[in-house]
Automatic annotation (TrEMBL):
<keyword id="KW-0808">Transferase</keyword>
<keyword id="KW-0472">Membrane</keyword>
<feature type="transmembrane region" description="Helical">
    <location>
        <begin position="193"/>
        <end position="211"/>
    </location>
</feature>
<feature type="transmembrane region" description="Helical">
    <location>
        <begin position="93"/>
        <end position="113"/>
    </location>
</feature>
<feature type="transmembrane region" description="Helical">
    <location>
        <begin position="256"/>
        <end position="279"/>
    </location>
</feature>
<dbReference type="InterPro" id="IPR002656">
    <property type="entry name" value="Acyl_transf_3_dom"/>
</dbReference>
<dbReference type="Pfam" id="PF01757">
    <property type="entry name" value="Acyl_transf_3"/>
</dbReference>
<dbReference type="InterPro" id="IPR050623">
    <property type="entry name" value="Glucan_succinyl_AcylTrfase"/>
</dbReference>
<feature type="transmembrane region" description="Helical">
    <location>
        <begin position="291"/>
        <end position="312"/>
    </location>
</feature>
<dbReference type="GO" id="GO:0016747">
    <property type="term" value="F:acyltransferase activity, transferring groups other than amino-acyl groups"/>
</dbReference>
<protein>
    <submittedName>
        <fullName>Acyltransferase family protein</fullName>
    </submittedName>
</protein>
<keyword id="KW-1133">Transmembrane helix</keyword>
<feature type="transmembrane region" description="Helical">
    <location>
        <begin position="363"/>
        <end position="381"/>
    </location>
</feature>
<feature type="transmembrane region" description="Helical">
    <location>
        <begin position="12"/>
        <end position="29"/>
    </location>
</feature>
<feature type="transmembrane region" description="Helical">
    <location>
        <begin position="49"/>
        <end position="72"/>
    </location>
</feature>
<feature type="transmembrane region" description="Helical">
    <location>
        <begin position="223"/>
        <end position="244"/>
    </location>
</feature>
<feature type="transmembrane region" description="Helical">
    <location>
        <begin position="333"/>
        <end position="351"/>
    </location>
</feature>
Length: 391
């Protein structure tokens, strides 16, 4: 079953990710491979403004993808059975990850390096990069594959931790038992939101004692982001399909206020803490026994849980219309996400000879990559005549 609001939100999020990667390629703080060879960077003041306006969304948009995936995962497993579900995920998620890590990504990184005048062989681009088996933006699907298989193989449990089943000491009606004890009939409550926020924040802080933010592991698994990603996948599964249809008004209003308030306060707090140059001041926030790391983990926990619920709720209230063009974009979104990396690196390399500031190049690369990625997605999905699923 397709849900227009979820499809439309997915298109917006994919476009945002592509545009965000384009900006990061020209940022001093980095975060996208083109920053390793970029010819120009943003003025520090511009980068600080961009970080204040766009940066907070980067703390929770990826978690929203996992949240949406979690909403549809239990139902998909129940319809298809474990074996078919795992087999389809291996093809849909595993194949693009392997092709990207082994062939596509090292090839286009090699092109970008040579375009920058660096004499690097393809083999060096493949074996010499840290982390090994870097798949670019497709780390997302590799991690989602791991989580999806784990959920599919998990034994059925009749109930879940009481924080998700009680509100103010009162038991809710018992939901239909399902995988992991999370079915489509469990209601998300304010207690659920607060509980998951604390879990995500706490486990994020603890994880980053070992794996600091932006650290690399074999396969580029982004282990430092796993608490957020897994937490949101499970929260989506707890809410189930009903959550995709309608976020309760109470939860919607609460999460909207939390997100708006947090984003409004962040620039002021950053200024008071003296964080005016991200490239120079970011290190203490990335991990370790520091108050800065604890603060960032808490902010991420707040934004990812509240932000994901708010975005879904906002889409349900404002993005429900879907004509043929919007349907085509929704079908194209997954392919657009898969092909964005090579397109971004190719466009940035092609614009390299032009003597333009980063403030001009980054938007050009971003807009071009969004258009080309979705155009390729449209062509591919139209050719195979299959619609992308919301799951």
């Amino acid at each position: 079953m397709r849900l227009s609001a979820v499809d439309n939100l997915k298109v917006i999020l994919v476009a945002w990710v592509i545009g965000g990667h384009a900006l990061l390629g020209y940022a001093a703080i980095g975060g996208w491979p083109y920053d390793e060879v970029n010819e120009v960077t943003f003025h520090p003041g511009v980068e600080t403004v961009l970080a204040a306006l766009i940066g907070p969304s980067g703390l929770f948009f990826m978690g929203t993808f996992y949240f949406m995936a979690g909403i549809f995962t239990p139902g998909s497993i129940e319809r298809k059975g474990r074996q078919r579900f795992i087999a389809e995920r291996l093809v849909r998620l595993g194949t693009p990850w392997v092709v990207s890590a082994v062939v596509v990504w090292p090839t286009f990184v090699w092109i970008a390096y040579n375009g920058a005048g660096r004499d690097v062989s393809w083999w060096q681009a493949f074996t010499g990069r840290q982390p090994f088996l870097d798949s670019g933006s497709l780390w997302f699907v590799g991690v989602l594959l791991i989580f999806s298989i784990a959920i599919a193989l998990a034994p059925p449990i009749a109930s879940v931790v009481s924080v998700f089943g009680r509100e103010g000491g009162r038991k809710h009606s018992r939901p239909r038992p399902s995988l992991l004890g999370i079915g489509t009939e469990r209601t998300i409550t304010p207690r659920t939101v607060v509980g998951m926020t604390m879990i995500v924040a706490g486990t994020t802080f603890l994880t980053r004692l070992v794996f600091p933010a932006r650290s690399g592991q074999v396969g580029d698994l982004h282990l430092w982001w796993w608490p957020q990603c897994l937490g949101m996948l499970l929260l989506g599964a707890i809410g189930g399909h009903k959550l995709a249809e309608r976020v309760p008004d109470e939860i919607y209003r609460m999460t909207r206020n939390v997100v708006v308030g947090t984003i409004a306060v962040l620039p002021i707090a950053a200024a008071l803490m003296g964080v005016l140059d991200l490239a120079k001041n970011a290190e203490p926030f990335l991990g370790g026994l520091t108050w800065q790391a604890a603060t960032l983990a808490l902010i991420e926990g707040i934004l990812v849980v509240a932000g994901s619920l708010w975005l879904i709720g906002l889409a349900q209230r404002r993005l429900t219309r879907q004509g043929p063009f919007a349907e085509g974009l929704a079908r194209s979104a997954y392919v657009a996400f898969v092909v964005q990396g090579p397109i971004l690196l190719s466009l940035a390399t092609a614009l390299r000879p032009l003597h333009l500031p980063a403030e001009v190049k980054a938007p050009l690369v971003g807009a071009g990559a969004i258009a080309l990625s979705f155009a390729i997605g449209w062509f591919v999905t139209s050719r195979r005549g299959a619609s992308a699923r919301s799951s």
